[in-house]
């Protein structure tokens, strides 16, 4: 189990926000401020201090350790192609990498190295912050950044479709990347130089996250911060509740201590009662209570009578009488139409007519022995004329109609209705006779008058409705609260009267009412400040949760697991290999001793100078030495972890002196004997050092790829190495490759075309002679792109003869004659050399180089 796997396994039972810190550190290589803020937000959600969202769900997911597990496959990278929307990289290029040796990808600034290195840093494993990948800003594309990456894992080829947001590929993550950002992760910017072995930097980042959360919690929990100042409460149940709030309280408890409206209304009554108890005798108070009771009793009866006479029962009774009357009237109308049909007068049989008929009957029957109605031949009591047979018959029919039972029932129903209507109309709704009683009850209940007058208005409307010929289907219930308020008022009077049953009860009653008033007053304060009290309860609950979170901000467990990992499997092997790597870089100016140190959960290797007055390496080591130390750390981890997969170095010697560039070149070429080493650089001197070391170290192989750019595209792959970095032998090989082009111009071109081509050829040939002098004759004592004179190489100079000087002079003179570099007279360059002469001049330098390389001994 690797350190990272052990850390991830250990942290499974730790707080979610701890796990998220490790996840972000693994993903990003470091915890920037935005990540620390996200971790803090996660901690708040975990403890219920912030509303939960998708971030908490993401934080709960299993941590991806791809690339950090024990190496299963030996992975090399074979090619990168089909690049889409990565800077200005051309999509039709194939960057093919040899699977062994050291491969140098060379290019000037803007040639596309950064684009390829960003792909590799995302796809492979690089410590530190992963660089951002941008598309082509000059030709924006909505396509996602992607590339096709071909690798070999244990000899088996795999083609991987990589996208910027794709899941990590375990095989690709086996490949390690080193650049300036990685170097900063190894070499701290503290006063003491140290680095965090792979995996342990996760614990250091975790400590950083814990410290950040702890600071945020401390700031959030400053005493008094977030609490609302409340008024002073008394020594009552509600007062004690409000004065001793804590996280143990619940928000719904506040409602239990809020005064009701009736309690608040009673405050004035209690104050008056307390005033009376202090100023009057019990006998006086009892007398006043009885007077009040007598005063409100008529008001109560007035309200009860009105409500009982105009209640829903009365409504249903009137509705029943009205229905009965209408039904009987309908039957009477049918009889009337049958008996009184075809009469010359309208409304015969109506109520007015019946009144007239009854009056006539009473007149005749009371004044004589005559019968009613009159018979034929008798005089009509109304018109005083003789009644004929037809009229007598009609009068007889009228009498039958009047005497019919149906007509009698209609009259009875009408009488019943009229009686009820008369009673209702007599109801008096004027409350002015009870004004003093209304005011008295109103003093105890502020809503009483409003409710009473509302009830009287409803009763007035109901009175009008009850007397209508057509009633509504239903009526709303009347508000019974005025009567209930009076009952309550009377009940309180009776209770108060009972409390004053003896003079001795007055003192105790005074004490109880004072306590009751204080309780209600505190309950009113609770109501007035309910929102602030709830805020304080919430704040105390939050402070409790912050306290739990603060307890999690303890780095001791981190220190323990750190020490355990270091003790078991990391520090000792890394110390061993680290010392070996430092020796390879030749740290002989001072003696560096690696020492382990622990600090707040972080375990670092501290480099100390064992002799001298200054122990801190950071104050003594140069930039080049520090870069070599970072590379030593990087390689020591690879060796300690027994990794064999490829490594990629992006500008490993940027801005370093030639001395340290040479040492880095040698070490990386040595490393290429164990694994595939890919180096991206724009430093031609470093390129040269790598080439020279590859030639000098037995078994090493050197591969070169050049990147160029066009006006719109970068990353254009060229197989030709940079001319300036080539050795004499390599330059001769390059010149041989130029011969077919010269032959083609000689066959198919003009004489001027051949002259121009010859200019270029002899220019390059001249530079090859110069490189021969530098390499073979002067043994690189002085070199181009070198920043010093290598005097230690003087002892290995080749013995020069006059013939050597003559051969060099002839070759250089010939080139100086024909290369395009001076504004010479035309006759000087004529006649121009033939193609055969050019080949002969090339063979001359090739033979001389072979002789110096193989047959001549150095002194």
UniProtKB/TrEMBL annotation:
InterPro entries listed in its UniProt record: CR006_AAA, P-loop_NTPase
Keyword GTP-binding: no
Residues in coiled coil: 403-430
Domain Protein CR006 P-loop residue range list: 378-695
Keywords, in A-Z order: Coiled coil
Keyword Methyltransferase in record: no
Superkingdom, taxonomy of origin: Bacteria
BP GO annotations: DNA synthesis involved in DNA repair; double-strand break repair
PANTHER family hit by this protein: DNA REPLICATION AND REPAIR PROTEIN RECF
Protein name, per record: AAA family ATPase
Organism per entry: Candidatus Thiodiazotropha lotti
Lineage: Bacteria, Pseudomonadati, Pseudomonadota, Gammaproteobacteria, Chromatiales
């Amino acid at each position: 189990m690797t350190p990272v796997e052990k850390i991830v396994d250990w942290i499974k039972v730790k707080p979610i926000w701890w796990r998220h810190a490790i996840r972000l550190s693994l993903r990003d290589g470091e915890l920037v401020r935005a990540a620390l803020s996200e971790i803090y937000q996660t901690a708040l959600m975990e403890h219920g201090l912030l509303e939960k969202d998708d971030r908490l769900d993401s934080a709960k997911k299993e941590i991806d350790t791809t690339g950090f597990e024990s190496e299963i496959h030996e992975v090399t990278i074979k090619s990168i192609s089909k690049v889409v929307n990565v800077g200005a990289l051309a999509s039709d290029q194939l960057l093919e990498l040899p699977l062994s040796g050291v491969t140098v990808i060379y290019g000037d600034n803007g040639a596309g190295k950064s684009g390829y290195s960003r792909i590799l840093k995302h796809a492979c494993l690089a410590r530190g912050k992963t660089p951002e990948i941008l598309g082509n800003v000059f030709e924006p594309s909505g396509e996602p950044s992607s590339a096709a990456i071909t690798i070999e894992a244990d000899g088996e080829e795999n083609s991987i479709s990589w996208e910027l947001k794709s899941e990590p590929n375990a095989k690709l993550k086996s490949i390690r990347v080193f650049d300036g950002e990685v170097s900063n992760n190894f070499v701290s910017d503290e006063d003491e130089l140290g680095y965090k072995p792979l995996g342990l930097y996760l614990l250091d980042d975790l400590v950083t996250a814990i410290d950040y959360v702890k600071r945020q919690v401390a700031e959030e929990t400053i005493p008094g911060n977030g609490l609302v100042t409340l008024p002073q409460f008394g020594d009552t149940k509600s007062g004690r509740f409000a004065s001793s709030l804590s996280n143990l309280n619940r928000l719904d408890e506040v409602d239990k201590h809020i005064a009701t409206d009736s309690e608040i209304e009673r405050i004035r009554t209690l104050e008056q009662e307390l005033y009376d108890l202090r100023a009057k005798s019990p006998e006086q108070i009892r007398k006043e209570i009885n007077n009040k009771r007598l005063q409100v009793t008529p008001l109560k009866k007035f309200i009860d009578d009105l409500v009982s006479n105009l209640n829903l029962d009365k409504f249903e009774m009137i509705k029943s009488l009205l229905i009965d009357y209408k039904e009987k009237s309908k039957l009477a109308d049918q009889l009337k139409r049958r008996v009184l049909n075809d009469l010359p007068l309208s409304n015969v049989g109506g109520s007015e007519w019946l009144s007239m008929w009854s009056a006539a009957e009473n007149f005749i029957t009371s004044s004589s022995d005559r019968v009613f109605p009159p018979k034929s031949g008798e005089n009509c009591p109304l018109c005083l004329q003789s009644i004929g047979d037809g009229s007598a018959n009609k009068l007889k029919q009228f009498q039958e109609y009047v005497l019919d039972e149906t007509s009698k029932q209609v009259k009875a129903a009408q009488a019943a209705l009229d009686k009820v209507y008369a009673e209702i109309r007599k109801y008096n709704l004027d409350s002015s006779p009870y004004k003093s009683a209304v005011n008295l009850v109103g003093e105890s209940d502020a809503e009483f008058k409003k409710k009473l007058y509302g009830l009287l208005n409803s009763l007035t409307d109901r009175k009008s409705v009850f007397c209508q010929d057509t009633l509504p289907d239903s009526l709303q219930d009347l508000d019974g609260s005025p009567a209930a308020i009076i009952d309550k008022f009377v009940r309180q009077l009776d209770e108060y009267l009972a409390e004053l049953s003896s003079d001795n009860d007055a003192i105790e009653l005074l004490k109880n009412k004072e306590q009751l008033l204080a309780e209600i007053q505190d309950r009113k304060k609770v109501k007035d400040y309910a929102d602030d009290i709830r805020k304080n309860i919430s704040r105390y609950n939050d402070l409790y949760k912050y306290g739990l979170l603060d307890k999690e901000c303890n780095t001791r467990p981190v220190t323990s697991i750190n020490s355990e990992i270091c003790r078991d499997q990391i520090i000792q092997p890394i110390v061993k290999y680290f010392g070996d790597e430092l020796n390879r870089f030749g740290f002989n100016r001072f003696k560096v001793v690696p020492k382990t140190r622990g600090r707040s959960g972080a375990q670092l290797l501290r480099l100390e100078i064992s002799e001298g007055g200054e122990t801190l390496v950071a104050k003594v080591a140069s930039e080049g030495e520090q870069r070599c130390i970072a590379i030593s750390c990087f390689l020591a981890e690879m060796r300690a972890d027994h990794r064999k997969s490829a490594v990629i170095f992006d500008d490993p010697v940027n801005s370093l002196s030639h001395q340290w560039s040479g040492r880095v070149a040698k070490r990386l070429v040595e490393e290429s004997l164990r694994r595939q080493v890919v180096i991206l650089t724009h430093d031609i001197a470093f390129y040269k050092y790598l080439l020279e070391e590859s030639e000098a170290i037995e078994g090493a192989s050197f591969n070169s790829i050049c990147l160029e750019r066009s006006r719109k595209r970068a990353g254009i792959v060229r197989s030709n190495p940079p001319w300036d970095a080539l050795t004499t032998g390599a330059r001769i090989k390059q010149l041989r490759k130029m011969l077919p082009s010269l032959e083609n111009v000689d066959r198919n071109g003009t004489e001027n075309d051949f002259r121009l081509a010859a200019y270029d050829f002899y220019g390059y040939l001249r530079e090859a002679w110069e490189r021969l002098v530098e390499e073979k004759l002067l043994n690189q004592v002085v070199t181009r792109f070198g920043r010093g004179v290598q005097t230690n190489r003087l002892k290995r100079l080749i013995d020069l003869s006059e013939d050597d000087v003559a051969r060099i002079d002839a070759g250089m003179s010939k080139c100086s004659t024909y290369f395009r570099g001076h504004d010479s007279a035309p006759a000087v360059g004529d006649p121009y050399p033939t193609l055969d002469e050019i080949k002969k001049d090339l063979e001359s330098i090739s033979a001389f180089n072979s002789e110096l390389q193989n047959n001549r001994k150095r002194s």
